[in-house]
Specification:
- The protein has 334 residues and is of the alpha/beta class.
- The protein folds into two domains: 3-212 and 314-329, Rossmann fold (3-Layer(aba) Sandwich); 215-312.
- Helices cover 30% and strands 21% of the residues.
- Strands 1, 2, 3, 4, 5, 6, 7, 8, 9, 10, 11, 12 and 13 form a 13-stranded mixed β-sheet that branches.
- A hairpin with a 5-residue loop joins β8 and β9 (228-229).
- α3 packs parallel to α5 and α5 crosses α8.
- The longest helix is centred in the first third of the chain and has 19 residues, at 22-40.
- The termini are far apart.
- The model has no long low-confidence stretch (mean pLDDT 95).
- Its EC number is 2.7.1.130.
- It is an enzyme of class 2 (transferase).
- Transfers the gamma-phosphate of ATP to the 4'-position of a tetraacyldisaccharide 1-phosphate intermediate (termed DS-1-P) to form tetraacyldisaccharide 1,4'-bis-phosphate (lipid IVA).
- Pathway: Glycolipid biosynthesis; lipid IV(A) biosynthesis; lipid IV(A) from (3R)-3-hydroxytetradecanoyl-[acyl-carrier-protein] and UDP-N-acetyl-alpha-D-glucosamine: step 6/6.
- It comes from Stutzerimonas stutzeri KOS6.
Length: 334
Amino acid sequence: MSFADRLQRAWYQGHPALGLLAPLELLYRRVVEARRRRFLEGNGNVYRAPLPVIVVGNITVGGTGKTPLILWLIEHCRSRGLRVGVVSRGYGAQPPTLPWRVRPEHAAAQAGDEPLLIVQRTGVPLMIDPDRSSAVRRLLETESLDLILSDDGLQHYRLARDLELVLIDAARGLGNGRCLPAGPLREPAERLSSVDAVLFNGADADRADGYAFNLRPVALVELCSGARWSLDRFPAGQQLHAVAGIGNPQRFFGTLETLHWRPIPHAFADHATYSPEQLKFCPELPLVMTEKDAVKCRAFAPPGWSYLQVQAVPSASFVSWFDSQLARLLPDHT
């Protein structure tokens, strides 16, 4: 187990050694609170786009389902007749220049795995740049849009926003409730009181403090051909190799178990890169991975490798609330 894995386990399961990190946690909290205070006071170089910006983010380190929710938001807004663009940091991407427009044919190493996944699935105009305000400006130079979605960026205060949506893993919650490095929080838990909506990934129903949403498996997709297979492709009890290089691999493995398969888990670091040799497992069994991993493995995947495509399903009350926000932000489109 890597140091990062051990630290994350300590955040959620507890460890007395975390008390030694209290001075660093205090310093971190002061920095992030000062940054937000400058933003609220209108100080610093903050860019306000000429169209609504919706930030989808989290206050915890690790996967909470942002990419599936971004995909849902894109399709939902398009169904309302809105032209949508997306900006992203492009974590791990190495484009030749910045900002960089991600195209479906780009390599994941160039574009970043999550931005490439979003573009390949939806064809949405998407620009990457660690400076998201720069990404928005460049996107608006080439596209006529009604709305910008910022993939992550809750803590990127150089970009003004009109709506903040925060995702939390319903099972893991906020861990020990402490900030980095003593806990998983990017900002203090009090930050949640200032966002517009909180969504709990995996919640059975809406809660007093937020909306429910779930990730529903919809199909298996073969990497090399793009062929879609139904979820009865494998019989109940089928043993298979499960590959996940995401923020919370256990959620993926658990999903496969709900489909009544028997996954042999192979957890990799979030945003991991792969070689064919890394994914040669014994015994020979079907291999299923996440869609985020698939965009990095498609070029060398043999026949039979597949990824599990999932779909975000937010609660009806969230959909109603979100539509009311669209009507408020874009009255001319209702």
